[in-house]
Amino acid sequence: MLLLVPAQAAGPTLPDKYSPIFYEHLPGKEKARCEKYVNELVLIEKRKKMGAKPWDLEKMAAKQAKIEADYDKYCLRLQK
User: Fold this and answer.
1) Neighbours of 40 (CB within 10 A)
2) Cα angle at 65 between 9 and 48, to 5 degrees?
3) pLDDT, one tens digit for every residue, the chain (80 residues)
């Protein structure tokens, strides 16, 4: 029996500020860093939806806050 859940099948969605349009103008290493931040945030959201343990959720929340702060600092600066 195959069971599809539309919300999980589409994958986690992030706010619009994590769209590639905000960091595509950056040079190579900086653009790669921003893509890494976005990929890590997607992974964290995916793990939350899958049902992580409470102690893992605490670690993920701390990591997510750091990634979001770094993303804001490095990827949303000097937009053209």
Assistant:
1) 15
2) 30
3) 554 444 444 567 888 888 888 888 888 899 999 999 999 999 999 998 888 888 888 999 999 999 999 999 988 875 54
pTM: 0.77
Rounded CA separation 25/4 (Å): 37
Q: Contact, 38 vs 22, CB < 8 A?
A: no
54-74 and 28-50 helices, crossing angle to 10°: 160
Q: How far apart are CA 51 and CA 65, in angstroms?
A: 19
